[in-house]
Amino acid sequence: MKNNSSKKEQLKDYLIDNDEKILTTNDGVPIHDNNNTLKVGQRGPSLQQDHIFFDKLLHFDRERIPERVVHARGSGAHGIFEMKEDISEFTCAKFLQKGVKTDVFTRFSTVAGFKGSTDLARDVRGFSVKFYTEDGNYDLVGNNIPVFFIQDAINFPDLIHSVKPEPNNEYPQAASAHNTFWDFVSLMPESAHMVMWAMSDRALPRSFRMMEGFGVHTFKLINNKGKATFVKFHWKPKLGVHSVAWDEAQKISGYNSDFHRQDLYEAIENGDFPQWDLGLQLIAEEDEFKFSFDILDPTKLIPEELVPVKIVGTMTLNRNPENFFSETEQAAFDPGRLVPGIDITDDPLLQGRVFSYMDTQNYRLGSNFHEIPINRPINGKHNNQKDGKSRMDILKGNVSYFPNSQAGGCPYHAMLKGENGFESHAQKVNAHKLRQRSISFADHFTQARLFFHSQPKTGQQHIIDAYSFELSKVKDPVIRKRELAILNQIDSDLAKKVGKNLNIEPPKELDELTLKFARQIWSQYPIKVKKPEVEKSKSLGMDLPDAKGTIATRKVAILVADGVVKKSVDTIKIILEKEGAQAVIISTKVGPLIYEDGSHEEIQHSYLTDASVLYDAFYTPSGKNVDTLLDNADYLQFINEGFKHCKALAFAEGTEKLVEKSLIKKDCGVVFEKGNKNWTLQFIDIMKQHRVWDIEMDRKVPA
Ligand code: HDE
C-alpha cells in the first residue's frame, strides 16, 4: 500500500481555525452573548434552561483525562526520519529502506514527576518516536539511558510505587531522594547498573536536544526471507550529549520549571531543528550466547567496542504541535506497535511492556484511541472492529466480520495480494512453563563497574556527590547502609567516598535482606561472574566523537546596564550569531536600554526576570554600565554562579573592576579582552567544550 498522505496533510483535516469566525456552541449555533447566564431578571437566579451555559461548563468540567502513570511530564514535536543506508539484508521494514523518508512524532519526558512537575528533576528521560510508515505506525519507545532498573515486568509497579511521591503524604514530587526508592533499589541488586546511570550527569540533560536515546531492549530485525538479526537501537544527537550541574538543575527548577519544554519549542520555532542519527548494533542470531552477559537482560548494554553502532539514518524535528493536548498529551506510544520487518525478543521486561501500553491507552484515551488524529496511521486502518465510546470512523456496508462472502471477503489478508503482512518471527520455543529467571541475568555489578570506570574524574565525582545527596535525604540509616553494601560490590573507592559523606563504613558483604530477596530469585545467589570483555568503554562517557565543536543554539547572556557601549555589544552579538549561538541582552530592567551614545534598544530580559542558570556563557561589555553593575548584587550573582557552574565568561576592556568584586578567579575558562586579540576565538572555544568541568574543584565558590 502506498503512502496516501503525509502526517501533516492528514492532521490538516482536523485543524480548527477561529479566525474571522462567529462564536458558536459545540453544535455550531451562533452565540449572541457569552458574558451573561440566563437569569430571572437582571439580579435574579439562573435558569436551568440555559443550554448555552451548560454546553460550555459541561465541557469544561471534563477537560482533564488521567495523566500517564509514568512519563506524565513530556514535550513533543513533529519531524521526519530519513533512512540513508542500505540494510535490506537485515530487514524488510519499508521505512528502513535506503532513501525512504517517514514522518515522525517524538515525545521526550521525565518518568517520576506529575504532569506539572519540573523538567530538571534528577530522572531518566523518555525518548519515544512514532514513525508513520506506509505499513502502519511503528513506535520506538525508549529512554535516554540504555539499561533499566529491573529485569522482569512483574516488578514494574513496585519500582514505580517506590519512586513516586510516598502514598501517605504525596511527597517528594519528581525526586528519587527519599526512603521508599532507596529501600526498593537497595533490596534489588539488579537495579545497581541503572541506578549508577541515574546518579550520573545523564539524568540532568542540558536540553532534550542534547541527549542520546536508546531502545534499551534487544529487538529483532527480520529480512524478507524471514531471517532474524538481533538489534539495539541508538539515537545520537548532532549537538552532542550535555548536562547541567546538580546545583544548577535545582535552581532552574525554581526559575523556569519548563526549561526543557521551552528550549525544544523555541529551537524549532527559530528554525534550529534538532537532529539525531539512528544507529544500530546488529548481532547475528548465531552470536546470541557469545557475550559475558545475556543480551535479553535489559539491565545490560552491549559495549560499542564489542558491537559498533552503525549509523543508518537521521531524524529531524522540524514542527511544533499546533495544540499540546490534542497532539502531545493524546499521543499513544506502544512498544508492541510493530511493522513487518521488526519484532520483539523474549526479554521479560519487553514482553510485559507489550501488554501495558495498549492497556494504559485504553484507560487514558478510550478504546478508540487509535482514531485520535495524532495516533492515526497515514495508510488508513481496515478491519472489522467497530463501535465503542467516541467512535469516529463510519464503517460502510453490512459486513463487520471475517471471513465473509458478503463484502467479497474484504478486508482481506495481506498475503492474498502478495503483500507483506506482519508475521511474528518463527522462533522455536521448547521449554517448561516456569515462574523463574535465567541465571544468566544474575551478574548485577560488572556493568555498573564498567559504567563508573568509564567516566572521567569529574563524572565520577558527580556520581559520588549524587549518591551522597540522595542517601543523605533517606531517613532510615539501615537503608543507607544497605545501599552502601551494593556500592562496595561495584567499586570500593566509590563506596568509601560516599560512605565518608554519610559517616558510614561501607559493609563488605551485601545486606542479609538484599541477599534474601535475591535468593528468592536465584537460590545460588551471588553467582561466580564471567570475566567482562572490556573494563572501560569510551561510548559510556558523554563525548560523542562527531558532535564536538559547535556552539549552535547556545544561549549567551550579554550583561549590561544603561550607558553600555553599543559597539561592545554589537561586536560579540554578530560573532556569536555567526556561530549559530543566541546572544541575549540582560539589563537592570526590561524596556528601553539606553546606550552610551544615547541610542535605545527595546529589551525583554532583566536581572529580575532571568537567572544565570538559564544561560550557557556570559559576556560583560564595556561602558558606563560598569559603575552601575558594581553595586548590582544580581549581576554579581550572575557571574559568580556562571563561574561556579563551570561556564565560559568573557569580560570587555574596562570591566576588570567587576571581576575583582566577584568571586571569580582567573582561570582557563575566563577570557579578558584587554591586550588579547584572540579573545573572541578563545571565548567560543571554551563554549564548545560546553563546560570546563576539569577545573570544577577550583571553582567551588558560594554562589
Ligand atoms: Fe514504560 N510505560 N513501562 N518504559 N515508558 C509507559 O505508557 C511500562 C519501560 C517509556 O511518551 C506507560 O502510555 C511497563 C522501559 C516511555 O507517551 C505505561 C514497563 C522503557 C514512556 C508503561 C515499562 C520505558 C513510557 C505510561 C516494564 C525504556 C512514555 C503511559 C515492563 C525502554 C511514552 C503510557 C510517551 C510510558 C509501562 C518499562 C519507556 C504504563 C509495564 C524499559 C518513554 O504503559
From TrEMBL:
Q: Spell out the SMART domains in the cross-references.
A: Catalase
Assigned EC number: 1.11.1.6
Listed binding positions for heme are R68, R107, F156, R353, Y357, R364
Higher taxonomy: Bacteria, Pseudomonadati, Bacteroidota, Chitinophagia, Chitinophagales
Q: Which GO terms describe its molecular function?
A: catalase activity; heme binding; metal ion binding
An annotated GO cellular component of this protein is:
cytosol
Record-linked PANTHER family: CATALASE, CATALASE-B
Q: Where is the Catalase core domain?
A: 24-410
Tell me which InterPro entries the record gives. Catalase, Catalase_AS, Catalase_clade2, Catalase_clade2_helical, Catalase_core, Catalase_haem_BS, Catalase_immune_responsive, Catalase_large_C
Source species, domain of life: Bacteria
SUPFAM superfamilies cross-referenced by the UniProt entry: Class I glutamine amidotransferase-like (SSF52317), Heme-dependent catalase-like (SSF56634)
- Catalytic site residues? H71, N143
What cofactor does this chain's UniProt record say it requires? heme
Q: What is this protein called?
A: Catalase
Q: Which GO terms describe its biological process?
A: hydrogen peroxide catabolic process; response to oxidative stress
Which species is listed as the source? Rhizosphaericola mali
> Keywords on this record?
Heme, Hydrogen peroxide, Iron, Metal-binding, Oxidoreductase, Peroxidase
Tell me the Pfam families matching this sequence. Answer: Catalase, Catalase-rel, Catalase_C
Instruction: Provide the catalytic activity annotation.
Output: 2 H2O2 = O2 + 2 H2O
Assigned protein family: Belongs to the catalase family. HPII subfamily.
| Function in brief | Decomposes hydrogen peroxide into water and oxygen; serves to protect cells from the toxic effects of hydrogen peroxide.
